[in-house]
């Protein structure tokens, strides 16, 4: 379990570094959230041979991304760190073509820890998936783009969803012969390479 925990957090950290490299040069974007590293410590003489070590975060600990859509988190919606965390989730979702989502973004200010990862397919990039796939569906339904999503040129998830629903209703009502409609297939987003080898 602790090995998987390290793999999850450190993989999310690698995504966050690429996100920072893309976002920081943008005019007006400013500081980018950082996922702090987590280290695995082996203590063979101890009853619990493996432990994790990470930097202690001092200050007000805030959950920026929610597991439950019913929970309203104003610090997530209104704060700069919260908005940038939501944009980071959108960015990872788009980068991995909807296959992976970093969840449970929480921490102090722009320093985040104890994150989770949800994957569309079990075993994607070596993840057992410590979060349910429903998190991805929930994110798709609830994410509201903000100015940082726009700065990065991320596609609105809502617009795509609404367009698809409209197209379906038009097809069924007005056009009996739906074979004449051309289907547009979105270009596949380039997936990032594996950052961390899964030899654990």
From TrEMBL:
Listed Basic and acidic residues bias regions: 188-200
InterPro entries (alphabetical): a-kinase_dom (IPR004166), Kinase-like_dom_sf (IPR011009)
Claim: Cell membrane is one of the keywords in the record: yes
Catalytic function, reaction form: L-seryl-[protein] + ATP = O-phospho-L-seryl-[protein] + ADP + H(+); L-threonyl-[protein] + ATP = O-phospho-L-threonyl-[protein] + ADP + H(+)
Gene3D superfamilies per record: MHCK/EF2 kinase
Gene Ontology molecular function, alphabetical: ATP binding; protein serine/threonine kinase activity
Residue numbers spanned by region Disordered: 163-200
Keyword Transit peptide: no
Composition bias type Polar residues, residue spans: 169-182
EC code: 2.7.11.1
UniProt superkingdom: Eukaryota
One GO location term (cellular component): basolateral plasma membrane
Residues in Alpha-type protein kinase domain copies: 1-157
Keywords linked to the UniProt accession: Cell membrane, Disulfide bond, Immunoglobulin domain, Kinase, Membrane, Repeat, Serine/threonine-protein kinase, Transferase
Subcellular location: Basolateral cell membrane
Membership in a protein family: Belongs to the protein kinase superfamily. Alpha-type protein kinase family. ALPK subfamily.
Function (record text): Protein kinase that recognizes phosphorylation sites in which the surrounding peptides have an alpha-helical conformation. Regulates cardiac development and cardiomyocyte differentiation by negatively regulating Wnt/beta-catenin signaling.
Name the UniProt record assigns to this protein: Alpha-protein kinase 2
Classification lineage: Eukaryota, Metazoa, Chordata, Craniata, Vertebrata
